[in-house]
């Protein structure tokens, strides 16, 4: 099933994509995890990426950031570009043992603005402090990240994204291992990004959260299952089809034969 809706439109009715997937194939050792994906992500849209385990959801975010090079096709940027991407990886990809404090981790969101050796002046320090307060972590600025709970760590990472002030935000399972209070905080931040017309894509598993907070959904099962308004995508029929597609992929080896783009 193809794209049902391209999401937001400009005042003149012309669709304005932040970026698009043009026959995008991504994978590891030339085995595809995402195959021939064709879709557009509208500027300012709030999109959940869903699908069974092994569907290629996290792989797709890595393809957008450029961490993973395509095996075929490409990500074509329209109003967005990679320099304006903020990316939150999964918990398992973050080294919590690294000796860094909350305030220093949040200040890393300034790197694109000031460079790795730039000075965090008074105005920027105030900005970092305001952001830490906005996620409810005032008083924990000096605490090493290794001592944080899962919810506190996720709030810290969201604060870093707020400081980065990115036009495109990619979130990989942002609500994993967080308490209900933190979930409310993080959803408010995401809602704020949407109001500010930032483009947000989030890999999610809880379909109730998707239905309540994400207007658009892209469902993957290595191949595209459906993409469009959430009520039209999150149907029992599409979910059953996605599970069947992933099971078929697991049983049958696939090899990409196209050259890298």
Automatic annotation (TrEMBL):
<dbReference type="GO" id="GO:0005524">
    <property type="term" value="F:ATP binding"/>
</dbReference>
<keyword id="KW-0813">Transport</keyword>
<keyword id="KW-0864">Zinc transport</keyword>
<keyword id="KW-0406">Ion transport</keyword>
<dbReference type="InterPro" id="IPR050153">
    <property type="entry name" value="Metal_Ion_Import_ABC"/>
</dbReference>
<keyword id="KW-0862">Zinc</keyword>
<comment type="similarity">
    <text>Belongs to the ABC transporter superfamily.</text>
</comment>
<protein>
    <submittedName>
        <fullName>ABC transporter ATP-binding protein</fullName>
    </submittedName>
</protein>
<dbReference type="InterPro" id="IPR003593">
    <property type="entry name" value="AAA+_ATPase"/>
</dbReference>
<dbReference type="InterPro" id="IPR027417">
    <property type="entry name" value="P-loop_NTPase"/>
</dbReference>
<dbReference type="Pfam" id="PF00005">
    <property type="entry name" value="ABC_tran"/>
</dbReference>
<keyword id="KW-0067">ATP-binding</keyword>
<dbReference type="InterPro" id="IPR003439">
    <property type="entry name" value="ABC_transporter-like_ATP-bd"/>
</dbReference>
<feature type="domain" description="ABC transporter">
    <location>
        <begin position="19"/>
        <end position="247"/>
    </location>
</feature>
<keyword id="KW-0547">Nucleotide-binding</keyword>
